[in-house]
Design brief:
Number of domains: 1
CATH class: Alpha Beta
CATH architecture: 3-Layer(aba) Sandwich
Largest sheet: 5 strands, parallel
Order of helices and strands: EHEHHHEHEEEHEH
Structural class: alpha/beta
CATH superfamily: Flavodoxin domain
Distance between the termini: 8 Å
Helix content: 25-40%
Radius of gyration: 17 Å
Length: about 190
């Protein structure tokens, strides 16, 4: 099994999601592709959009270079059987670095396509496990705009087997919330 391990916390030390995602990867075992979003990814630009919507066989060298990082990120997704994402909730949503990753991998004709009935994901047969931590937001509540968004994005690109491991309200229930999340991780099967 190949795991794509993505961390998006700005904190490299003392991060609950980094700790949880590492435990998930260790629990599952297998080959690991590591993607740490600490060094922010670029935002998509007009040049990126124009390159993306130029047919691949008609792109010039500059357009191919513009899409090179996006292509690499997509190849990492394609190579993985399981995607493990560490996702802290910042101000009720995902960190900007994780949103940038989503923007770079959600590409029409590459990870999803349009059909008469709407978008269809092209990355079928994969599993995603998302380790979410919040300071005070209950995961799954009406003010949690992160976990539902990530579930939707995974499904949008064809990954429908999605599990969320939550350590929510850490500022109020720290040790208990983390212990509950770790207990859920121990139940994961490869």
């Amino acid at each position: 099994m190949t795991i794509l391990h993505i961390d998006s916390s700005a904190r490299t030390e003392g991060s609950v999601t980094r700790d949880l995602s590492a435990q998930i990867v260790a629990q599952l075992g297998g080959d690991v592709i590591r993607r740490d979003l600490t060094d922010a990814l670029p935002q998509i630009t007009e040049n990126w959009v124009n390159a993306n919507f130029t047919p691949a066989d008609q792109r010039d060298a500059v357009q191919r270079d513009t899409l090179a990082l996006s292509d690499t990120l997509i190849e990492e997704l394609k190579a993985a059987d399981t995607i493990v994402i560490g996702a802290p909730v910042y101000n009720f949503g995902v960190p900007a670095a994780l949103k940038a990753w989503v923007d770079l991998v959600a590409r029409a004709g590459v990870t999803f396509k349009y059909s008469e009935t709407g978008p269809v994901g092209l990355l079928e047969g994969k599993r995603a496990i998302i380790a979410v931590a919040t300071g005070g937001t209950p995961v799954g509540s009406e003010i949690d705009f992160a976990s539902g968004y990530l579930r939707h994005i995974m499904g949008f690109v064809g990954i429908h087997d999605v599990e969320v491991i939550a350590a929510d309200r850490v500022m109020a229930n720290g040790p208990e919330a983390i212990a509950d999340a770790k207990a859920e991780i121990e139940k994961l099967a490869a």
